[in-house]
Amino acid sequence: MKKLISNTLLMLAAGALAVSCADYNETNNFTAQPDPSIVEPYKDLAPVKTYLDREQFPNMTLGAQLLAADFNKQELAHAAAITNFDNVAFGTSLMSGKIINARGVMNFLDMSDMLDHVEEIDGEVFGSPLFANANQADDWLNMLTAPIEIPVDFVEGKTVDYTTMSKFEGTVEGGSASIAKYDGENALKIGALGKVRIIEGFEVDPKAKYTTTFWAKADKDATFEVVFSGNKITGSGPNGKWTFKGGKWNKIVVEAQSAAGETEGYLRFENSRSPVVYIQKVEVGYYPDNHRPQTAQEIIDTIDYAIHAWCDGLMDINKGRISSFDLIDEPIDTKAVLDNGMYDLNHSTEKIFWQDILGSEQYAPVVSRVASAAFEKHGGNPAELRFFISESGLDSQQKFESLMHWIGIWDKNGAKIDGINAKLNLVYSEDATKQAANEATLNRLLDNLVSTGKLVRLSNFDIKYQDANGLAVSTSNISEVQRQQLANYYGAVIKTYLTRVPRDQQAGICKGNLTDTGDPVGLWSVNKDTKDWVRTATYKAFCDALAGK
Q1: How far apart are CA 49 and CA 27, in angstroms?
Q2: pLDDT at 3
Q3: Which tens digits make up the pLDDT trace of 214-251?
Q4: What gap in Å lies between CA 236 and CA 462, rounded to an integer?
Q5: Backbone angles phi, psi at 469, to 5 degrees
Q6: What dihedral do alpha carbons 108, 110, 113, 116 form, nearest 10°?
Q7: CA 62 to CA 545: how far, in whole Å?
Q8: Confidence band (pLDDT; 50, 70, 90) for 23?
Q9: In the chain, what is the greatest distance between 2 CA atoms, to the nearest angstrom?
């Protein structure tokens, strides 16, 4: 028998529940639905967060990560999160890549609904990263930094006058072509099904727009196709073909660009089963590419605009309700080493990275200054605002030292950086030697974080289970004994954090997944038949650890 958060209880009246759980989901007079049922073996456990001694640990918080859309449904995940945890985080859900479209339109509907509800129940949210290299509004940034249109003049190009020729020496790719007398003058004669390059031998710029003009006549109405430097050009006739009336000279104008990769300029006339077509004169000219790259200063100004627009839009919706944010997410590139042995920041030649425009040393100072000003402008209390740098893999000593190298530079240059949000990647191993190493690595990580003097937050608090051979044990295969060993390690991590991190540096722990995934990481498992949420031993381990047991 297990403690459940039950789907079926959506249809039950609150009075039908046991008295012992009547207040389980009460949050400032808001009752989260569905309420849990009470069954063994964890029926007497209260919400997880109630076991923390707030007087002893005044700054400690418990967080849960959800998708904003799932939270807004106000179903099982929502009920579990607001009942058992102090705050919720929404991962990438509130990052610019999910909110800003290619035209710069910002869609804050999910965020607005979520914040209104959180305010209603007096809850808290830990803000998604404001700036990062992944999950950014890349299409918008590309549009903003795209080359600028400029006026250009038409450039006269090559001209071929068949009235002056006695022999055709161009390229015939099919059918026949020759110089013949027509209407008293020489002209290029193209037979039925002829495929002839009527002008060629000039270079093409793939970004230029070409205009080819020629004069053609046939005794009867003609139908043909046109290919310009590998690019088939659609006409206005039936099935995209080109047509002209017979019995008179027609001026044909073809606007085109060359096909990708083509450097040879030509226009191929492809006659259909029409009568013979005569062509007198062909001219080609072009408008050069009417774009120029933005100057370095223009790009700086453009990115400055983007930073201000994003922060202002976000903070306008926020109105001070979120006061803790990841300012920058995962800035370190472990594949790039500086002369001093530290890892460099991420850089890109293919995408817009904020630090590439602002400069590595000014990255955090600039974005923290703009975000802080927007926060205060839209009703936030600057005394409550906290910015974190979030990074994964900080159990690597070199990566930790590299992050601190950059934070030191940013601090010196005036950045507001209050804490470090360390993304965990924890494993419990049945191999005693490996597990001792896992615990030593965690201890070193916490000691390193404490040594910075900044707030310490742990996120992605999920622990995977490995057997003695190093193989992962899945949710479907884990035994009760193994589940308890895993739960014990969860409790040990919490207690280690509470004892090794000074209270004035504790910014909290955020659970990565509330329920089991393919790995048994949850405080709840999900019944595969009923979809009910069933408390696991990890739930109890959280409660005991927070209570100091």
Answers
A1: 12
A2: 43
A3: 999 999 999 999 999 999 999 999 999 999 999 999 99
A4: 62
A5: -95, 5
A6: -70
A7: 12
A8: very low
A9: 109
Cα of 241 vs its chain's centroid, Å: 43
| Residues 188, 280: Cα–Cα separation, whole Å | 6
Q: Which residues of 305-328 are buried (b: 16+ CB within 10 A; e: fewer)?
A: ebbebbbbbbbebbeebbbbbbbb
Q: What is the pLDDT of residues 89-107, one digit of tens each?
A: 999 999 999 999 999 999 9
Q: Which residue has 């722990």 as its token pair?
A: 509
Distance CA 61, CA 457 (A): 9
pLDDT band at 44 (very low <50, low <70, confident <90, very high): confident
Flag whether pLDDT at 518 surpasses 70. yes
What residues have CB less than 8 Å from 245, skipping those under 6 apart?
221
Q: DSSP state, 49?
A: G
Q: What is the 3-state secondary structure (H, E, C) of 478-538?
A: CCHHHHHHHHHHHHHHHHHHHHHCCHHHEEEEEECCCECCCCCCCCEEECCCCCCEEECHH
Q: How far apart are CA 27 and CA 43, in angstroms?
A: 20
For 410-468, what is the HEC assignment? HHHCCCCCCEEEEECCEEEECCHHHHHHHHHHHHHHHHHHHHCCCEEEEECCCEEEECC
The pLDDT of residue 529 is 84
Tokens 């223009």, located at residue: 298
Token duo for residue 91:
């991962």
DSSP β-bridge partners for residue 65:
89
Average pLDDT in the 514-529 region? Answer: 92
For residue 110, pLDDT beyond 80? yes
- Percent of the chain topping pLDDT 70: 93
pLDDT band with cut points at 50, 70 and 90 for residue 114: very high
If you count DSSP H runs as helices and E runs as strands, how many of each does the chain have, helices first?
A: 12, 32
DSSP 361: G
Count Cβ neighbours within 10 Å for each residue of 138-158 and write b for 16 or more, e otherwise.
bebbeebbeeeeeeeeeeebe
Q: What angle do CA 271, 212, 162 make, to 5 degrees?
A: 65
Q: Is a pLDDT exceeding 70 seen at residue 344?
A: yes
pLDDT (0 to 100) of residue 32: 62
- Nearest residue to 284 via CA among 231, 201, 199, 212: 212
Question: Considering just the CA atoms, what is the radius of gyration of the chain in Å?
Answer: 34
Token pair 């859900």 in the structure block, residue: 93
